[in-house]
Write a structure and sequence with these properties.
mainly alpha; elongated; CCDC170-like; coiled coil; Coiled-coil domain-containing protein 170
Length: about 800
């Protein structure tokens, strides 16, 4: 493989193994090279270019030392070998080649030193990476510690919440106990107030006990029963007196009627016997005196009745007042007994519920007021103790929280520094990728230019072969090939211009001597060779001058340029080393600080373990309280369910009561409506009876008599008026059979009329149609209708024909 042959990675084959070694040392590909690797690649590139230049110079020197080795001429016959200037040039070129070789060796030594420093930097970088990994592991451990501290804080917060909820439940129970005590005291006050009111109403002494009060109330009840018996007796006596008064009133009315009849008879007798004898007058005076006496007796009886009525009303009012007082006292007694019983029941239920709520599986609280109060005082004392312990725990939690916050701040600062270093690393990686991209683009452009150069060089060599300059082209190279081709073209142009003169001279010579043609051709060939050699030597001189100028520039400016580049590279490496040392110092300080924090974390772990123990104790206590709360909740739920069941039963009873009340009200309304209708019927019956001339005041008139009279009255009316009435036979169809039989027996002598059937149209067979059929088709059907009943002949005699106009109106 040629020295300058390139591979796919853009590097020569001679440098490819070393580049592979560098990539293997970096554990990355060519796309992940760092600044030191890039510097090394640049040095390799410069070294490669210098080596190529040296190789080209050595080849040129070899060509200059043996320029005619490729030609068939012997070296002794070439006059250039004997030229002293060529030997001096050769010696100068050899000296320059030696100096360039020494510089190359020096650069190789510098390159080895740079490789050693690069290896040291890699080792330092690997050590820093190990330190960074160690720091990352320690950060993870700190993060785990922080998470455990957070979990402990959450557990403490949950326990605090549970403790607060337990305190709230205890306060609620205390409030319920206080409310129950207040209700009990209120009920006691109400009971005492009621007892005082009863004592005041009964007018007994305050020193008497409740048993005496109950006995007194019992006596009042017995007295009330006796008074009720007396009231019933007085009521019977009053009714008897009312009956007597009614009989007296009837007697008085009868006497008044007799007096009025006697007075009327006396007046009539006086008018007829106006001129009668004295005996008649005396009889009239006697009757008048008797009438006055009777009137006086009537007035006396009325006064006695009025006094008896007033006395009865006074007695009734007194009895009503006493009964109302007894009813009020009885109601107050029942209300007091009910309220006292309810208060005792509620107090007992409250004490039982409190005792059940305050009881536990190990301690049973009796449902007494003293036991409940003692248990509540014990719970209050325990709550105070728990409050003190919780306050201490909260203080410790606050201390741990402050410590944890400080640790969290340091961890956050460390995370910030780590993120900043990562950001710098990412930035450097981005810059490295950008520079590698630029380098790859430059390699691609260089490969393209190299391919174009090779194509152009091939074209120029082909052109040189066409111009017979192939040996000169092999000696001068690419730089002076264009100038050589231009000079060769000028020579050919001059040769074409001077070919005419040269041809004339040859003819003369040929005419002078016959064997000079071959010598002229040889001379022209030698002249062409000489011109080509001259052109070749001129090109070689230019090449040597160019090489000397390049060597001088390398000796004057190139050395200073390379030395400044090396100084800049060394300065960069020194800066990188200083930064790495600073990072190492920071890492050591961070390690020391993390060790201190680790010690603090160990202390915090011990504190957290102790807190865990305390929290476990608190959790057991809270579990016990929770079990107690669950038992109390179950009992409360059972009591609530029982109360709800009672409420539902009461609601059902109230609903049933309301339904019965609605039904009773509906029945009352229906009864009132029936009474109203009955009253209306009675009034209607009395009116009909009065209209028929019957005694309306007497209720013993049978309905059949009224109906028979109405029937006879209707029959007594005219024939035209009879058709407007409804016969009695149709409504009797819906009556009872006994009523029908009584009616038939009562009105046997009265003829019963039957109603004519409805007239049906013979055309459409519909009653009361609108088809306007002539009257002759309908008169026959009307004439065939007759009476129904016993009086058939009478009914036939009363059948009448109807005029067409009336038929048109009816249909």
């Amino acid at each position: 493989m040629a020295y300058n042959e390139y591979s796919r990675d853009g590097l020569p084959s001679i440098h490819r193994p070393r580049t592979r070694e560098i990539w293997k040392l970096d554990d990355a590909g060519p796309d992940a090279l760092g600044p030191s690797q890039r510097n090394y690649c640049e040095l390799q590139e410069q070294l490669r270019t210098q080596r190529e230049e040296l190789m080209r110079k050595e080849e040129r020197i070899r060509e200059l030392t043996c320029p005619y080795r490729s030609s068939g001429l012997p070296p002794a016959s070439d006059p250039l070998l004997a030229c002293p200037s060529a030997r001096g040039d050769l010696a100068a070129l050899q000296a320059k080649a030696d100096s360039l070789a020494s510089k190359l060796r020096q650069r190789q030594i510098e390159l080895d030193a740079a490789n050693d420093s690069l290896a040291r930097q890699r080792e330092e970088n690997a050590r820093l990476l190990a330190l960074n990994a160690d720091m990352a592991r320690r950060l993870d451990a700190c993060e785990v510690t922080r998470c455990s501290a957070e979990r402990n804080g959450h557990a403490v917060q949950a326990l605090q919440d549970q403790y607060r909820s337990a305190q709230e439940r205890i306060r609620e129970l205390e409030a319920r106990v206080r409310a129950g005590l207040q209700d009990g005291s209120g009920l006691e006050r109400r009971h005492a107030d009621f007892v005082n009111r009863v004592i005041y109403q009964l007018g007994v002494g305050c020193a008497e006990d409740l048993d005496g009060l109950v006995n007194k109330v019992g006596e009042l009840v017995k007295e009330n029963v006796a008074m009720k018996g007396r009231i019933h007796g007085l009521t019977d006596r009053q009714s008897q007196l009312e009956l007597d008064a009614k009989a007296n009133r009837e007697t008085i009315q009868r006497l008044l009627a007799e007096v009025s009849r006697n007075s009327s008879a006396a007046a009539a007798a006086g008018s007829h016997l106006l001129n009668g004898d004295q005996g008649a007058r005396a009889e009239a005076d006697r009757l008048r005196i008797e009438r006055d006496d009777l009137q006086k007796q009537v007035q006396l009886l009325e006064m006695r009745v009025e006094s008896g009525r007033k006395q009865l009303e006074a007695t009734r009012a007194d009895l009503q007042e006493r009964e109302a007082r007894l009813a009020r006292l009885d109601f107050e007694r029942r209300e007091a007994a009910h309220s006292s019983q309810n208060s005792e029941t509620q107090m007992h239920a409250l004490l039982e519920s409190l005792a059940s709520m305050l009881s536990s599986a190990f301690c049973r609280v009796s449902p007494t007021e003293e036991a409940v109060k003692e248990k509540v005082r014990l719970m209050c004392r325990e709550v105070k103790e728990h409050s003190a312990s919780v306050a201490a725990l909260e203080e410790r939690v606050r201390t741990l929280t402050r410590q944890f916050e400080a640790q969290f701040e340091t961890s956050r600062e460390r995370d910030f520094k780590t993120r900043r270093v990562e950001c710098d690393q990412i930035d450097l990686r981005e810059r490295l990728r950008a520079m590698e991209g630029e380098l790859a683009a430059a390699d691609v452009i260089r490969d393209g230019l190299k391919a174009d150069k090779e194509k152009f060089y091939k074209y120029m060599r082909r052109l040189a072969e066409a111009l017979k300059m192939d040996r000169a082209t092999a000696d001068v190279g690419f730089d002076l090939l264009g100038e050589g081709l231009l000079a060769r073209a000028e020579q050919l142009g001059r040769r074409v211009g001077g070919s005419g003169a040269v041809g004339g001279c040859g003819c003369c010579d040929g005419g002078g001597s016959g064997g000079g043609g071959g010598a002229g051709a040889k001379i022209r060939a030698l002249r062409e060779q000489l011109e080509s050699k001259d052109l070749h030597m001129e090109l070689l001189r230019k090449k040597v001058a160019q090489l000397e100028a390049a060597a001088g520039a390398a000796g004057t400016t190139g050395g200073s340029g390379l030395s400044s580049y090396e100084r800049e590279r060394a300065y960069k490496l020194q800066r990188h080393l200083e930064k790495s040392q600073e990072m190492l110092d920071d890492a050591r300080q961070e390690i020391a600080r993390l060790r201190g924090q680790l010690l603090e974390c160990n202390g915090l772990k011990a504190t957290a373990i102790e807190q865990d123990r305390e929290l476990a104790c608190l959790e057991t206590t809270m579990e016990k309280l929770e079990r107690v709360r669950q038992k109390q909740a179950k009992r409360i739920a059972a009591l609530k369910a029982e109360a709800e069941a009672r409420d539902r039963d009461g609601g059902d009873r109230r609903g049933q009561t309301d339904g019965m009340s609605h039904e009773i009200r509906a029945l009352r309304r229906a009864l009132e409506e029936a009474r109203r209708r009955e009253r209306q019927l009675l009034e209607f019956r009395a009116a009909i009876a009065r209209m028929l001339g019957l005694d309306a005041a007497s209720l013993s008139i049978p309905d059949l008599d009224i109906i028979a009279r109405l029937e006879r009255l209707i029959q007594a009316q005219g024939g035209g008026a009879y058709a407007a009435f409804t016969p009695a036979e149709r409504p009797l169809g819906g009556m009872e059979p006994s009523f029908q039989s009584g009616y038939s027996s009562g009105g046997a002598g009265a003829p019963v009329r039957g109603r004519s059937p409805a007239r049906v149209c013979p055309a459409c067979r519909v009653a009361r149609c609108q088809c306007r059929v002539p009257a002759r088709h309908r008169s026959g059907s009307r004439g065939r209708s007759g009476r129904v009943g016993g009086g058939g002949g009478g009914g036939a005699s009363r059948a009448r024909s109807v005029s067409p106009a009336r038929d048109n109106r009816r249909y």
